[in-house]
Amino acid sequence: MKPVIALVGRPNVGKSTLFNRLTKSRDAIVADFAGLTRDRHYGQGHLGKREYIVIDTGGFEPTAESGIFKEMAKQTRQAVAEADVVIFVVDARAGLSAQDHDIADYLRRLGKPCLLVANKAEGMREGAQLAEFYELGLGEVLPVSAAHGQGVRSMLEAALDALDLPEPEEDAEPDPDAPIRLAVAGRPNVGKSTLINTWLGEERLVAFDMPGTTRDAISVPFERAGKKFELIDTAGLRRKGKVFEAIEKFSVVKTLQAIESANVVLLLLDATQGVTEQDAHIAGFILDAGRAVVLAVNKWDAVDAYQRELVQRSIESRLAFLKFAELHFISAIKRQGLGPLWGSIAKAHQAAMRKMPTPQLTRLLQEAVQFQAPKRTGMYRPKLRYAHQGGMNPPVIVVHGNSLEGVTDAYKRYLEGRFRKAFELTGTPLRVEMKTARNPYADKES
To answer: Which domain of life does the protein's organism represent (predicted)?
Structure first.
């Protein structure tokens, strides 16, 4: 599982700027105005091969008893509870405040790994200007400048080292007999619990407890039509006597970790609400993780023809980037449309694990270039020579040639379409990477 890092601090100390730096994105809104972030923001990043999840929080006031600041404090406490390591951000230029002391007292009581980071420290020397922050009793003060990127890498290395995690292993060859790991993801109250209970109870599937650690998603192995599956639940399965009961307890971190550890993700949508921004965010995480995906719209029996048309339009517009995924309309409570789901799940898994021989890939590449050559950029036209498979789940196709840095995104999409059609890659993302041959004369003097 990816480690989780929470950014905590009082308002306007630069947490969102640091979040954007750690995720290499602009997902968090940044402005010189206190209290801009109110909800938790989630993002993913990596340092070399070490990957992580970052949570950006609003300004933290542990003693707030009412109003928006109480709600922001509640959001921050939830983020800290989900985190493996906390980065406490203070303002090196504004100096120490009483609020910093309150936050430090709260973090010390938790006993979690915590790094004290003094932001906006560009141009400052380590010494007198940072000495006052040692009063907080959280150990060494790490000076950084989130806006300029100074000290951020060292801070991140210290945060990941504090967890003493094993080095990431090289991807092993997938076991063809291993069960399909299926994660059911979606917003709260879309019917995940009902669907899971229907699968485990009404269809009388073979199931038993497989407890994991607190950081692991709870998984339940079961079998259907001779095929083995392993359900990774994001709703939090609990056992009550001999009956499985799914408790709807939404945690973004649990959902992200379940998506990461799955082979296939079933993204459940609510027909009565259409595609929301939260649905689109979860779909984006699935795509970023490279997981095979099946879309299912639940509560289809509860909407009329007009609402159904609106839902289909919202899927086409807001989830256009998942057009490779198969779409089903179901009713979990009435057990309608559930059968075909399993066929799409198996098909998506097969596509994600598809082996593509190098001779066939190269032939398809040459046929694609003959039909439509890439545009010339500058003095040269990109030359695509051969292709081979670079990975599975998701499938990766590596194209070799010369001047490939000039290949446009549109042409990559064209190649992706040709490869998808030839290998029937339904339900899985496909990544096409370009690798330019090194010029042997580049380092020689003329």
So the answer is: Bacteria
Are residues 143 and 192 both part of a single domain? no
Query: Is 60 annotated among the ligand-binding residues?
Result: yes
Residue 430 marked ligand-binding: no
194 is in an annotated binding site: no
Give yes or no for a contact between 59 and 38, defined as CB atoms under 8 angstroms apart. no
Summarised one tens digit per residue, pLDDT across range 373-403 is 888 877 788 899 999 999 888 999 999 998 8
Question: Is residue 197 marked as binding?
Answer: no
Query: Does 57 carry a binding-site annotation?
Result: yes
Q: Looking at the structure, tell me whether residues 420 and 389 fall in a common domain.
A: yes
pTM over 0.90: no
Q: Is 186 annotated as a binding residue?
A: yes
Annotated binding residue 208:
no
List the structure tokens of 8: 């905590």
187 is in an annotated binding site: yes
Residue 132 and residue 57 in one domain: yes
Domain boundary among 297, 320, 352: 352
The whole-angstrom separation of Cα 386 and Cα 407 is 15
- 342 marked among binding-site residues: no
Average confidence (pLDDT) over 357-385: 89
What is the spatial distance between Cα 276 and Cα 82, in angstroms, rounded to a whole number? 24
Q: Give the residue numbers spanning the domain of 253.
A: 180-352
Residue 175 lies in a domain: no
Q: Where are the alpha helices (DSSP H) in 24-170?
A: 67-82, 98-110, 128-131, 152-161
100 is in an annotated binding site: no
At 269-286, the pLDDT tens digits run 999 988 988 888 888 889
Task: Indicate if 406 and 334 belong to the same structural domain.
Answer: no
